[in-house]
């Protein structure tokens, strides 16, 4: 392996993980195991992408969250949002509803809880502006997100923004790399989506809400969590400006032509997808990947990974499928090109690449035809913690257990 190949491998694999989820613990035909490969490659310093994989009984919850204007919103989502999803999935299942309703409720509640931080922090006594700023940052920053619930032969996906989820589907249950179909489960919420432009303009008649392809000329995604300066009222924004007056945070004031908030919603679009034997894998990733590669190309990369086509289109160096995707997104077989791109330091690197998070979910592992056995380095996903599914601001920091009693400084 050349020096360039070694550098690329270290960079794309540094944060790579393999996880293995075994529903029912028996590997039976009704509940095949799920293998997950994930990696994160930073461009921002600190990195603003996050992801989470958590088990809820037989089901698996996967979330990819792409932060902007700060890392705090995406970080909080990665720590607790899957718990919101789990709580609502249990409730929806008990009432005869499904995963789509659970995802809608989870996104709506989490975003509402972020916006409620303003009133909670305002009510705290004896708290400095510096402390208030730290408490408010998950709402001030923003995150686009895609989340999936894999439950037996059904996948539920919800997303807000321009993270994407795609399924790689064999055209037949036999054969090799040729004959794959890409199934897009999401559609980007931005100015390239006519339905989103129409929605936003209809909600703010007579206003110039889409400027240079962005919301009020500032925010590229039309849906996101946090980004409260596009959502809070004028009165709240005035108080926020006072709290952040001495702060160097650049996004402490509402955007220009701010007349009739909210302009951005955290409400997701959702879909329910029925799996069969032809559905091999799902890729969830931040826009750092989709800016480089089409959905079809990414499916082709993973399809080659499965069939080990060493003479195919893409480079085959990494054992981890997510790392394999990242390498190939930056140049594949041209290791010198990939290395030169990855070596560009932050913040200059943002001219050439964004943070990239890729999560590949294999619905039926055993891609070589062998037994469905967990890889020796595979982790088990952490269980969803329903007791940590409500964020509240206290004078000691943010709590995620829904209580306002003081129990130690929250880690943010």
Mean pLDDT: 92
Shape: globular
SS strand fraction:
15-25%
Poorly predicted runs: 367-371, 405-412
Pattern of helices and strands: HEEEEHHHEEEEHEEEHEEHHHHEEEE
- Roughly what percent helix? 25-40%
Q: Please give the number of β-strands.
A: 17
What is the gyration radius calculated from CA atoms? 22 Å
| Number of discrete helical segments | 10
Q: How many angstroms separate the termini?
A: 40 Å
Which class best fits the helix and strand makeup? alpha+beta
Q: Let me know the largest β-sheet.
A: 7 strands, mixed
Structure, explained:
- It contains ten helices and 17 strands.
- It has 412 residues and is of the alpha+beta class.
- A hairpin with a 2-residue loop joins β9 and β10.
- α1 packs across α10 (335-342) and α2 (72-94) crosses α3 (99-123).
- It starts with a helix and ends in a 13-residue tail after the last strand.
Give the SSE layout.
Blueprint lengths: L2 H11 L3 E5 L12 E8 L7 E8 L2 E10 L3 H23 L4 H25 L5 H12 L1 E10 L2 E7 L3 E7 L9 E5 L9 H10 L6 E2 L2 E2 L9 E2 L7 H10 L25 E6 L4 E7 L1 H4 L4 H13 L13 H9 L5 H8 L13 E7 L19 E2 L8 E3 L2 E3 L13
Helix pairs in contact: 1-9, 1-10, 2-3, 2-4, 3-4, 8-9
Keywords:
disordered C terminus; about 25% strand; globular; about 400 residues; single chain; alpha+beta; seven-stranded mixed beta sheet; 17 strands
